[in-house]
User: What shape does this take?
Amino acid sequence: MTIKVKVIQPPNLSFLERIYIPEIIKGLKTTLMHILNFHPITVQYPEEVKQLPPRYRGLHILPADDEGKIRCVACKLCEVACPTQAISIVAEASDEYGIERRPKVYNIDFMRCVFCGFCVEACPCDALRMGMQYELASYNRAGLIHTKEVFFDPNVKSRAPRDNANFLYERERGEILDEPNEVEKIRNASSI
Ligand code: SF4
Ligand code: SF4
Assistant: This one.
């Protein structure tokens, strides 16, 4: 069996490239420009809070429905999607129209969570979101297990349909995302 050898020729450098001096001068010029145009970027945390990008994935939020209750229907899709098994849900029966179950217990273990957002992607009814909070420090491990009472935010409302039955019910009541502005916004966002 013959062995194929590929010979790679070194690049032909000019005299100036071989002595490196112009490249060193270019590097020093860049450093000097940074020194002359210096703007401090240090944020004086916690007195000053950093402005985060809108897609930041911080601590989770459980949004509320129109009646101010937790939207989650305890389908456990987020629990299944979580790669670190950080979510644990215990469901209980619900007697509300179109909703079979509600979470009796909904915990997220932030010692395990890697803030990947898979749980939010898996949720079929916009009942879980990533918020903008990142202050997670705790004096003990128990403090890092957040219950639904901690991350339910009644001020964050969602109008997405929970399921088909509920979608029809909410549309009948005229409470579904039918505003032309919102529909147009969604169309524009999906065409980007
Ligand atoms: S963000 Fe990722 S790791 Fe954290 S609970 Fe959701 S799926 Fe699990
Ligand atoms: S947050 Fe969403 S995916 Fe998770 S159990 Fe509730 S409804 Fe299902």
Notes: DSSP finds seven helices and six strands in the chain. The chain has a mean pLDDT of 84.
